[in-house]
Amino acid sequence: MRTSVALTVCAFVLPILLGACSPPGPGAGQDSASKLGDTARAGSVKPGALDGVTLTFTSWGGESQQAQMKVLEGFTEASGATIVEDGPTNYAKLQAQVENNQVTWDVVTVDSVWAAGHCDLLLAPDESIIDGSEFTDGLTLGDCGVPADIYGNVLAFDRGAFAEAPTRWADFFDTQAFPGKRAVSATNPTGTLEAALLADGVKPDDLYPLDVERALDKLDTIRDDLVFWSSGAEQEQIMGSGQAAMGIFWSGRVGFSNKAGSDWGTVKTQPINATSWFVVPKGARDPAAAMALINYWLGAEQGAEYAELTSYETGNRNADPDLDAFARDVQVTSSDYSDQVWIDEDFWAANLGTLTDRWIDWTNG
Fold this sequence. Notes:
- Pfam families: SBP_bac_8.
- Keywords: Signal.
- The chain is an alpha/beta fold.
- Helices cover 33% and strands 15% of the residues.
- The chain folds into 2 domains: 15-149 and 275-325, 3-Layer(aba) Sandwich (D-Maltodextrin-Binding Protein, domain 2); 151-274 and 334-364, Periplasmic binding protein-like II (D-Maltodextrin-Binding Protein, domain 2).
């Protein structure tokens, strides 16, 4: 990375010490709105408008965050801001920062469902500086968040494990025809409950509201064959180490793992698609500057660069990435995939807390 980007990685600290992780730096407590102007085209920022401003960018870590930082080098060069890096995203930590009035994160990558469910409590509303005019059809600005990328919860499988490849969600639950361990999230039921219901014969149009008990009953049939992951990095570790023969994984992580030498395929029917969002916590030191960073991210060139680095799409309809074979294989909105299923954000926003508790009880049971 160019020397204009300052990077730090902070360890988890107790809420009372939340201010110690990221130094306020010049610009703390300021509002850069007057310097930035009223509006900006997606992908642009007023040159030099954020000289002396420090922003802390927090995301999921690993290759995806490295790619995000690479894309944002252009923002630091144009705006004059310094970006301090932190991670991984931790919802309890973000909540503690807001509730203790010790906000040190300025822009945070979160799951869209979590953002929708915490808009009024923890997140700042969008500023007028955000330009969503180039979003692909179906994506819009949220009340308290901006779509950052698109990913799929896909049925991934070790190509060397089976004589014939699985073709549908029902195969994930068929341990006789497709023996071996299956990997699912340890902490987040989003995507996994939908997969269980699709495997049990529920049509996509009838998924919501989710029949949770039916989904868990279906998952009970393979409980002894499950292994659990808690992060994107653990997904890649499972694929690279042979701990499982199948998994419900994020599409981009399959691409990363294959690029590193794994040989995993994805079932091209019914990916369960979702978005990650960029959000600004309530009490952020300079919300206008944080929104300017997000608006820069939304440009077509930025979207193309990020897709080339990660395979994840940003949702800019004008992005034209030059993808390698690993990335092309996991483009879950492409014509290679059929019958895409989209996470119902409204349902999950209303039920995430209850269903997460229920899921963790089930995984620990």
